[in-house]
From TrEMBL:
Biological classification of the source: Bacteria, Bacillati, Actinomycetota, Actinomycetes, Actinopolysporales
Protein name as annotated: Nucleoside-diphosphate-sugar epimerase
Superkingdom field: Bacteria
Segments forming domain NAD-dependent epimerase/dehydratase: 11-222
Pfam families documented for this protein: Epimerase
Amino acid sequence: MNPTTGKPHVVLGAGPAGRTLVDELLARGLRVRHVNRTPIDDVPAGVETVTADISSPDRAVAATEGAATIYHAVNVPYHLQVEAMPNIGRAALTAAHRNDARLVVLDTLYPYGEADGAAITEQTPWEATSRKGRMRAALDHAYLDAHHTGEARVALGRAADFYGPRVVNSTLGGAFFPAVLTGEPALGFGDITLPHSYSYLPDIATGLVDLGTTTDEAAIGRVWHLPTVPAVSTEHIHALVERIIGDGITTRVLDQPVATGPFDERFMSEYAEIFYQHLVPQNMVSTPFERHFDRRPTPLVDGLRATVEWYRDFLTARQDTRNP
């Protein structure tokens, strides 16, 4: 089956990644269905929406009926991940199998654990030590096993920490950009002098749709690192943002996972086990994907500029809402 045919491309999840995936699919002229547990607002013209709890296999099958490709971009709060994500993943596999659809999964770096920061590649061993990392690794093995046994056709696209338009709940998101634009101290995590990979959300969406539409079956059934610029220090990113806004930034460094700003105690208690990401070098390499699909990640300064402009609009809209 050619996944670029008129069958719908079905996006599961309406967070920042799911919404950006919808935009990318529409830009390619594809038919789109957007599925979420709760009703979706601000739906682009021409997008079919379905409200369904896809942790139920039967509901996932029904919501994705007739799909060419299913994009699994569902996430849940950190304190629910270990329990909820395996059920959602198995339901997505069932939906792909029953509907003869390709399944493309948005994945994380958690399975690698405290990997070699010099170069995290697709060949880096999966040595997760956290509960969430072990859960993700086990689920990823299940996805790949399903592909290799013929149960479903699956591809995994891994990304580093997100940044970009719509990205709020991120270490380079709502705790950073609003503070920068209002002259408040901006939050930095861990050792901000170490190299750390950040993936630009529109590049993530582009890469996932490449996996969902490619006619090269040899590209399916494996893990890919989605296009991401070579790691630089978070401190360097702060300097780039200073140039973009034309003003200095005051940084407040969080050297241990304690509740602060938008990150409450429950979040931080769950995030603590993966805080190591900010205490070791982390450089995710995406060269194989870039070569195979002829893609290049958005230059860091361009992505940061677009993110700053999105946050300017976001803060203005929020202020207008508070002061009608």
